[in-house]
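so my prof wants the structure for this chain in the tokens format not the other one, which i didnt know existed until like an hour ago. anyway here's the sequence
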Amino acid sequence: MTYTTQAEMIERFGEPALIDLTDRATPPAGAIDAAVVADALTDTDAMIDGYLLGRYQLPLATTPALLKDLAKSIAIYKLHGDSVAEKIRTDYQDALKTLDKVAAGTIRLNVAGVEPASSGATGVKVTDRPRDFTPDNMKGFI
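here's what i got, hopefully its the right format
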């Protein structure tokens, strides 16, 4: 399951930006290289799945809007070569922080999840050592 698509990337970042990032032909073809975009989206999906794996059943039945937004930020960062604009880098770092919160359960997605393992206990059990001073051995002092 992919969290975002090439069409959604074009909608958010514009076709000229994606042409600049993906057209690696010599001479330039002047078009988006779908294979380059697909590679970035595959890498993005794998990264997001890694964060969600312990908490949610994968693949997700539906893609929450939050994950679509995070996927776009991660994918555009992956499409950049050596030089990345500060805004793109900041969005990428924020996306990773948000995924950390999703993995920790601080932010919850409205999808079917995996329940954390339970010990089966229903309460607290306290085990203490035997008492040195009891009413029986303290007769006469109490």
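also thought this was worth mentioning. The chain has a mean pLDDT of 88.
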